[in-house]
What we know:
Blueprint: E1 13-19, H1 31-34, E2 44-48, E3 54-62, H2 64-67, H3 75-80, E4 84-88, H4 98-107, E5 123-125, H5 133-151, H6 159-173, E6 176-181, H7 184-187, H8 191-197, E7 205-211, E8 217-222, E9 224-228, H9 237-240, H10 248-262, E10 270-280, E11 292-294, E12 300-302, H11 310-323, E13 328-333, H12 337-343, E14 349-352, H13 355-367, E15 373-375, E16 392-393, H14 402-413, E17 420-424, E18 428-429, E19 439-440, H15 445-455
Parallel strand pairs: 1-3, 1-4, 4-5, 8-10, 8-13, 9-10, 12-16, 13-17, 14-15
Antiparallel strand pairs: 2-3, 6-7, 7-10, 11-12, 14-17, 18-19
Amino acid sequence: xxxxxxxxxxxxxxxxxxxxxxPLPEEAGNWAKASGFTGKAxxxxxxxxxxxxLSGALFGLGTEAGSRRDRFxxxxxxxxxxxxxxxxxxxxxxxxxxxxxxxxWLLAAYRxxxxxxxxxxxxxxxxxxGVDAARLQAIAAGEFLTRDLINTPANDMGPAAxxxxxxxxxxxxxxxxxxxxxxxLLAQNFPLIHTVGRAAxxxxxxxxxxxxxxxxxxxLVGKGVCFDTGGLNLKxxxxxxxxxxxxxxxxxxxxxxxxxxxxxxxxxxxLRVLIPAVENSVxxxxxxxxxxxQSRKGxxxxxxxxxxxxxxxxxDALALAAESQPDLLVSFATLTGAARVALGPDIPxxxxxxxxxxxxxxxxxxxxxxxxxxMPFWNPYEPLIEPEIADxxxxxxxxxxxxxxxxxxxxxFAEGAGRYLHxxxxxxxxxxxxxxxxxxxxxxxxxxxxxLPQVLS
Length: 457
């Protein structure tokens, strides 16, 4: 599925955007009044011509105050209008961002149809004046890739399949890719990735994709736990149901990589993408609670919960990334339930010690409707991740500040990078919303894409 705007033609139908209780256009005549159209958010009124054919439509924008409760306002029109090509016959009010509105229409077309026939929204929009249509289509294409990867169940999206998805993307965008698999992980000093994934039938691996040879260096690290049983600390069935999405960090960095390449951002950027791809399974050789594990960085880790495996595989990848001293190192991971308790499914927390980087990201997140919320690398909590018999603890007891302590753990392995940014994402929309179907969803990628020119300048 390729997201695209309709070409501008004389046959596209007009769509008037009407705020609540705004005067109706003359073209609507008395029909809209008789139909009870008031302009409330999401309301659609189809307009007939003198022969009973469709001549256009009105779409309700609601109020400025109400718009703050919803993203992608035009996505409702994409799903509610009849098939065909449409153009905006009226200007967007100044309280609606044109890029966000147009992107929402594109995103509304997404459907995951690998296993069940279906169709996306068939009402296409002519790109509104003033928006960069090619850029928005590239962003939507990256988001579609992320959603497809997350939505695919683990029987078809294990570590080998995730590797193939990365290889397919590398071929599409002209990137180089190398993969270290199975016992070779030990030979090349990635002990934590091997430890977590060794019990699975599908061997663990580290995917390493590079693109570009000039400009500042950016390394993206994505958690690629393709399914998480919890290991010997086995999850209950209800908690295991969505664990196909535990590779949401990997899916997000691959989607972001596609956005960067298709928008031309990699022409002046040295990009590296690292994905530790594993399945956390149960077998006779599974790692155990209480084991003390070796890491690439040399730090020892007391494993107090095999269900806190994501930070372990990320640790080796972050250590490798930091060795090259990149200008910016970013990790995306579906890491902690604590983040969901604090901020819910829609707002991922992010951690960054550099105020200028954090400010740029927060501002970009608001501008492009990809919300994020800054949380602290709270140094007084460092003792919580320092057990008695090893350098670090992957699952400190007490149940408090779980997202912060996980971020502090990761920061230990990112030392050496110019700046480190960590996003604790959910990667899933629990219910359908405008521009977002129920299921896998990208988080933070569009915000980082928008912030990078300022962050890496």
